[in-house]
Amino acid sequence: MKKVTAIISLAAVFAFYGLIYDGMCDTSGERLIYTEHVSYREGEEETLTATSFLDAIDIAMAENEADPETTEFPEKFSLTDLGIITKVKKQGDYGMCWAIAATDSVETQLIENGIDDHPDLSEWHLGYFAYRGYKPLMSTEENVFNTGGTNTIAAATLSRWQGLITEDKAPYGTVQSMEPYMQYAADYKVTDVLNVHPLSSSHVKHSVNFMKELVYNHNAVAAACYSRPEYYNEYTHAHYVDEEGAGIDHAILVVGWDDNYSRKNFRRDRSQPEHNGAWLVKNSWGTDWGDKGYFWISYEDKSFCEAGCYNSVPADTYSTNYQYDEAGWCVSISADANQKNLSGYMANTFTAENDDPITAVAFYTTEDDADYEISVYTGTDPSSRSYSPVNGTLASQTSGSQRYTGYHTVNLETPVSVKQGDKFSVVVRLTNHESPYCIPMEASAATVSAGFFSSHTYLFHTFADSETDSSYISLDGKTWYLTTNKRYSYNYPEYLGLSAPLKKLRSIVLGNTCLKAFSSPADSVILPEEPDPPAITEPAVTTEPEVTEPAETTSVTTEVPPLAEDKFDINKDGKVNAEDLNILISCFHGTLSEKYDTDMNEDGKTAITDLILMKDRLTGTQYSVDTSN
Question: Which of 254, 428, 458, 627 has minimal CB crowding within 10 Å?
């Protein structure tokens, strides 16, 4: 299918996203590289807003940082005791910790869900095709295996169905390049990345209870920390960063905790945590490091952040990925001109590539406990000048809520049948409880205020192939607006949890909504049965008493000339259907209360002949009657 074009400078990502973790690699020397896809002059002061519907007025809003509800957890817990953690990997001299943490999280879910007892996935494939291939997520001149990454980058790459494949097909450290055709090879397809955040956000810190909730629900959590040796006690395998603003440079996997892990186990030549308690962490530096590859990190570690949890299914579960948001979740917006309403709609229209039914929809939620309502329409017509993605036939609806922020795949309650070439649309209403910015979006450029000047930071350049393939947003589900390449100005950027270089964000250039639709192989889906046509029951015919001396008659069969089409439309509603037949039957039985013209053949009475004519009209058979003189 047609997909968007994504062009990016990885260094530009560094510029707004902060320090990207890549093992033990130094990521200093950030820079901006501008692309040629610019809709305004370089250096021009940005004063425009997106469009009139996105103009806003100033109101006061407070940032909310509510912790999840307090839950009772055991004092000590470890997923290693459950046998669902795979072997410790060794990243070697490569900056591949982010890819290892992501694939390790998937492997745990494969075991937990009974899909594979001994999974071993290729980190090398993920790390390579995030930056290479026919359509890389990003472009960089650096060695891709030392470029580094984040949960957000892994989520965007894997949600495009670039991987995952098994280790034997792309072994770690074996090749420096792969054939482009391997980009979309997959043995498993990622369906969910819980608690991932947009590319523009700062690295998110979480409460102890929140992290425990994730792990206790059998998620191996891909997190991040600052890994310098001066914070590590090699004798107790304990790590504690006591300095605010230390940054992060390493991805790890949280697999358990111990509330009673002594604060005295951390280095004594530095300040120690105030309380006991630490996370059990699986590292990616081999089993000859730490405690057979594991170590402890204090609950109070000031660098510890992020919490991505991955889930996947066998690749043959879904067959086609209908998508425009290949750059993934960059920013969040509101469809409300005042940026106050907590709900909004997003929509995409797609063209069916084959006859496989649509079985699932994927999207991001921008806040914990967000509600969603999914609607799928068939027979949409995006060529119409007054196009609306809801102008077709409603074919399926599904609703619910998502406990965690992040990427989710929701199976439709009713699969939708499509034929190759059919147009269909997917509409999702999202409702937050705190932030008005409920719609996840790609974005290509951000304008940041700097005193009397503004700077332009490029995120992703994403453009649909044509307007009919573009994305839409709406406040009420009735009036729709295109998003691709439109400017959007923020009233309350403090609500977005932005990274430091974007704290004074003024506006962005939008891409597509983060909304996908998946089909499944036709032979694996049971579609709802089409309703049977209404049963046509001929009324019983009363037989006249036998005549002793019957009159001589000659029986002939005569074809009835076609009747006027409006003759069959008894109730004059513009169509001929079972309702007209029921009126005719009621008249025949003498139970009709309203007056209708039910004399089909205009012989002066409503009789069995009229019923036969209507039956033949509805069933499409040649109508005829037996007449006698």
Answer: 627
Q: Which of 103, 111, 35 is nearest to 79 (CA)?
A: 111
* Phi, psi values for residue 496, rounded to 5°: -95, -10
Q: In the predicted model, is pLDDT for residue 251 greater than 70?
A: yes
Tell me the two tokens of residue 116. 């594979």
CA distances 285 to 54, 88, 167, 572, Å, are 49, 8, 18, 78
In a domain, 316, yes or no: no
Distance of CA 29 to the CA centre of its chain: 34
Q: How far is CA 134 from CA 128, 162, 188, 235, 336, in A?
A: 12, 11, 20, 47, 37
Q: Rounded to two decimals, what is the model's pTM?
A: 0.76
**What separation, in Å, do the N-terminal and C-terminal C-alpha atoms of the chain show?**
67
Q: Which of 370-374, 545-549, 580-584 has the highest mean pLDDT?
A: 370-374
Amino acid sitting at position 253: L
Report angle CA 165, 170, 174 to the nearest 5 degrees.
160
336 in the same domain as 250: no
Q: Tens of pLDDT along 392-435? A: 999 999 999 999 999 999 999 999 999 999 999 999 999 999 99
Average pLDDT, rounded, for the chain: 80
512: its two tokens = 């597509």
In this structure, are 235 and 159 located in the same domain?
Answer: yes
**Pair (279, 408) in one structural domain:** no
Report if residue 43 sits inside a domain.
no
Sign of the dihedral through C-alpha 548, 549, 555, 561: negative
Percent of the chain with pLDDT over 70: 77
Encoding tokens for residue 168?
Answer: 């034997």
The residue to which tokens 């719609």 are assigned: 439
SS3 at position 109? helix
Domain limits for position 569:
555-628
Q: Which residues contact 436 (CB under 8 A, 6 or more apart)?
A: 61, 334, 336, 339, 340, 341, 342, 492, 495
> CB neighbours of 498 closer than 8 A, spacing ≥ 6?
200, 201, 202, 505
Distance CA 498, CA 613 (A): 72
The C-alpha atoms of residue 486 and residue 482 are separated, in whole angstroms, by 8
The Cα 133–Cα 243 span in angstroms is: 40
Give yes or no: residues 305 and 354 share one domain.
no
Q: Considering its fold, how many domains does the chain have in total?
A: 3
The per-residue DSSP string of 34-69 comes to --S--SS-TTPPP---S-GGG-----------PPPP
Confidence (pLDDT) at 614:
75
Q: Are 311 and 235 in contact (CB under 8 A)?
A: no
Residue 194, pLDDT > 60, answer yes
